[in-house]
Structure formats: structure tokens, C-alpha cells
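Notebook entry, structure prediction.
Reason for the run: the old model in the group folder had no record of what sequence produced it. Starting over properly, with the input documented here first.
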Amino acid sequence: MLIAVDIGNTNIVLGFLEGGRTVGTYRISTQANHTSDEYGLMILQFLQFSTFRPDDVEDVIVASVVPKVMYSFTSSIIKFLHLEPLVVGPGIRTGMNIRIDDPRTLGADCLADCAGAYAAYGGRCLVVDMGTATTYNYVDAHATITCGLISTGIRTAAAALAGSTAQLPEVQIERPRSILAKDTRKAIQAGLYYDFLGGIERIITQFRREIHEDFRVVATGGLSRVLETPLIDVVDPDLIFKGMAAIYELNR
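New structure, fully documented this time:
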């Protein structure tokens, strides 16, 4: 079994992969002050819950955008699983060409998302990852990442709204039944949802205007299943794990 780990700004998500198939996923909050022992115990508990043993783990691959967490987390893999994890970053093969001004600035999560989209759905696709930030990356028919865009994530917008006002509460992000809200919480939920949805649709439309070829839109991330729009062709919550599995196969 391969463990794929996506270390994001808000959550660390672990995927247990067998034969390229995700057989279990677990999510913990990203905390810089967690020790390697704490991370290691969580991983062992997740394995036990999924009826796996530490000896069942063949390897671990990590994609991280939070450098300050990496030492503790990778140390936990070495200490508890006795494996040196493969880290997505400079010096490993990904199967992707990066044609942006500074390839080093492309996040490991975006790179893994693009590798997963290309492996699963082929070239000419716009990959939309809805996380703490919402990222858009275009992959052409030759596995080349040619451009990208970054915007605010909907949860980030919700937290900013609650934190910058005296009387507006934080709300759970969900699909509203109607835009005709009757109370403050529903008004915030509907406002966030339709504002975010409208932004995504406008960005996708602009990509189609400026890229003179047809492409598929592939969405992933925690909120990709909440948004409803015909402009998104595929919703794949496991996209980053598919990308890390493809990268692992190139480097094993």
C-alpha cells in the first residue's frame, strides 16, 4: 500500500492507495506545533481503523505547501513506519513540463493535481482546486502546465467576513436552497456561495476566451462537490492522490 499525504494550509489529508485506487482517506488539522510522535500516533490509528498494519505500507509520498510542518511530519514517517518519504518537489520526475516564468513557485499540490488530471483525463484541461485558496492551472495536450491563476477560497472569504465585522457570525459553507435569504446566517451563506460560484464561472469563461482550443474543466478540493455549475465537467475529490500515485510510479 502507498500512503499519499497532501499537507495544505488548513488540513493534512492522507490517502491510502492500493493498485492506484483510494481505499481510505483521513483528514487532520495542520498544526505547526504537532510533534513527530503526535503525527506518528495519528497515522498508526488511521492504519488500524482501516485494518492495515504498518508493515502493509510499501512507501509514502508527500506533497506539501507548508514548509514548517515538514520536519515533524517526515520525522514521524521515518520513526513509526521506518520509511523515507518521497517529497514532491525539485529533483523528482513528475511527467509534467512547467512553462511558467518561475517553475519553482508552482505549489506541490498544484503540480500533483495537474499530474493527476493528465493521468486520469488526458491533456487540454483546466484544473481547479478549491481549498484555502482557489487555484486554476491549465495543462495542454503535451502535459505542459502553461499558465495559472490564484484567487481567494470560499472558507477564507467567510473567515475574513466574520473576523472583520462586529456582528456577522462564521457560517458553515453549504449550498443554499434559495438566494432569497430570510435571516443573517442564510444571507451570508447564500452571498458567499453565489459570489464564489459567479467568480468561478467568470474565470472559466475568460480562460475559454483566451485559450483557443477546447478543454475539459476538472475540479477538486474540499468544496468542489458543493458547487453546482455546468461549466465544470468533472469533479474528482481524489485528484491529488491520483497525481501522487502517478509521480510515485515514475520515481519508484
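Summary: The first strand starts at residue 2 and ends at 7.
The old model has been moved to the deprecated folder.
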